[in-house]
Specification:
Strand order of the largest sheet: 1-2-3-4-5-6
Radius of gyration: 14 Å
Structural class: alpha+beta
Helix content: 10-25%
CATH architecture: 3-Layer(aba) Sandwich
Number of domains: 1
Strand content: 25-35%
């Protein structure tokens, strides 16, 4: 559900979905978008219904939203689109439905995440480079 909320929010900014994770059983990026200024952004979405909590990225053998994780051939969204980490920006969006808040961070290099404070920052990503 959180993925669909984020998809609608970003669509309102002129981002166009290129890929949406469709079901259970696969692991990988949740959404891939083409922004209004023609940048490709891979998005990992986390959602929770627990008040006062924010979901976190997984820290398995390969941490989520790292270049290695995106470049894994088992990451279906990236593989189906023929993309790797050098081709995309990254975003992590966390939605807390109980508290009605969202948090977002973006990366251009998958080494440093930059917090996003307002939706306006998502309308033009030139500040990331």
């Amino acid at each position: 559900m959180a993925e669909s909320v984020v998809e609608l929010m970003l669509d309102g900014l002129g981002w166009h979905v290129l890929w949406h994770f469709a079901g259970p059983g696969l692991h990988g990026v949740d959404l891939v978008f083409l922004t209004a200024d023609n940048r490709v952004v891979a998005v990992e979405v986390k959602g929770t219904l627990v008040s006062g909590r924010m979901a976190r990225l997984s820290r398995r053998e390969v941490e989520q939203m790292t270049a290695a994780w995106l470049d894994d051939p088992a990451n279906p969204g990236m593989a189906e689109l023929g993309l790797d980490s050098a081709d995309v920006y990254g975003a992590v969006v966390v939605v807390n439905f109980a508290d009605l808040i969202w948090r977002c961070a973006l990366t251009a290099d998958f080494a440093v995440l930059h917090p996003v404070g307002t939706l306006d920052q998502l309308a033009d990503l030139t500040w990331l480079t």
